[in-house]
Amino acid sequence: MRENNGELTYSLTGEDGGAGEYYRDVALLTDEVLVKLHEDPSIAKFGRYIALRKLETWNPDIYALEWLMIGVLWNVYHSRATVGSVYAGQLLSSLYRLRSRSREARRAVDRLKGIAGTTVLALRHKAVERIQLHSFARLLGWLRASGEFEQESRRLKIWLDFLRGLPGKESAGILHRAVQKASWFERRSLECLGSYTSKVETYIENNRQRLKWQENRIFCSRERVEYHLNMVGADIMNRVFHAGFQAAPEKIVFLPICMRNKPAGACRAVQEGPGYVCRRCSKTCRVHAVTAMAETCDSKVLMIPHASTAFGKERIPEGKVGIVGIACVLNLIPGGYKARDMGYLPQCVLLHYSGCVMHWHPEGIETCIDMDRLQLMLEQGKPSSKS
To answer: What is a single Pfam family found in this protein's UniProt entry (predicted)?
Structure first.
């Protein structure tokens, strides 16, 4: 068993300071989860639905992840979804899109998000005994209204459309089995990955008052099973998009600003596109170390201020750019979806722990990653020098 540092929600590092054991554990659990999920015919049927409508050409393992996601999010949030959730989701999600217009708009929308997250979206209601199509639609409304599940709710809306085209008994059965699999996953993932997330409940309890009225209240109060879902989800996405990433002629590493060892005023990084390029003002900075290593693999590094700004606004040509996203656990699945939606071929490496001042720690903690794992990814994707 591992002990997390202070009140940090998770930590991947063992006694040797490395994360090798974590990556072995999550790979084994992912193998087990995929076998368990693909036993159900629902995933193959959804894949045929996608293929007939030519919506995309994704691997069935992504569909398996989404089916599991339905059950996990239902188990965690269904008691908060009301009759008005669909309307609230449409209204609030449209307001959230205004955040990018100006700094003043962002502050106003964030205040609204904090109020909604502490009042109407936090209220728990009488639990629904069994998931049904209409209650699943309410859940998606609540997810959109929360402002924290934009990518997930977009993907699950496709599942909702698929289920609406089936006989009622069949759609109810698919949803019910997803919830059953999610209950199994919660138990099994706690056994396999629980040592890495042992401080989640403590963090939530100790920060309950601080997070009141804050726009990140829902994000910072996510349950352990959601951490485990993102861990397994990231491993699935890495497998599914690995070949495309290797084939992409250009590679970019996206780093969070919590990896630098200087505050914003002292860091000399210069802006380039959606991020910042390291100017190597500190030899001990981990951003400097990643930048130097990536250069040997013909890759570029951008430091990203916030996950929401990572990919810019314009979709890039398909298959041209592979990215390695460095992120904390709760940003893994939505980051992978967003990257793919924008035309990138994504891979990810997890931060060993969360430490950014915006969400997790009052002063901020310099975070780190498994450098060997990142280097291997970039070396495997390096263009061959052979003609």
So the answer is: DUF116
Q: Do 259 and 340 lie in a common domain? A: yes
Two structure tokens written together for 147: 């402002």
Q: Indicate the SS3 state at residue 24.
A: helix
Asked whether residue 312 falls in the same domain as residue 282, the answer is yes
* Residue 33 structure tokens: 């989860």
Tell me the C-alpha distance between 213 and 198, whole Å: 26
**What pLDDT does 268 receive?**
81
Residue at a domain's end among 209, 235, 261: 235
Q: Are 179 and 72 in contact (CB under 8 A)?
A: no
| Residue-level pLDDT at 384 | 55
Helix (H, G, I), strand (E, B) or coil at 254: strand
Residue 184 in contact with residue 232, Cβ under 8 Å? no
Q: Which residues contact 103 (CB under 8 A, 6 or more apart)?
A: none
CA 164 to chain centre: 27
One domain, residues 301 and 225: no
Positions in the chain short of pLDDT 50? 1-6, 385-387
pLDDT at 386: 43
Residue 47 is encoded by which pair of tokens? 């894949």
Same domain, 166 and 261: no
Tokens of 241: 């998009």
pLDDT one-digit tens code per residue, 229-245? 999 999 999 999 999 99
25 shares its domain with 128: yes
Give the separation between CA 18 and CA 20, rounded to whole angstroms.
6
A 10 A CB-CB count for 109 gives 20
DSSP letters, 263-307, are: -TTT---EEETTEEE-----TT-HHHHHHHHHHHTT-EEEEES-G
Using only the alpha carbons of the chain, give its radius of gyration. Answer: 21
As a whole number of angstroms, the distance between CA 345 and CA 342 comes to: 9
**Pair 143, 271 in one domain:** no
pTM for this predicted structure: 0.91
Total tally of structural domains belonging to the chain: 2
Boundary-marking domain end, from 174, 201, 235: 235
Same domain? 82 vs 177: yes
Q: What is d(CA 234, CA 240) in angstroms, rounded to the nearest whole number? A: 10
Strand partners for 283: none
* Chain center to CA of 199: 19
Handedness of CA 356, 360, 362, 365 (dihedral sign): negative
Q: 79: how many CB neighbours lie within 10 A of its CB? A: 15
**Per-residue tokens: 100:** 């990018």
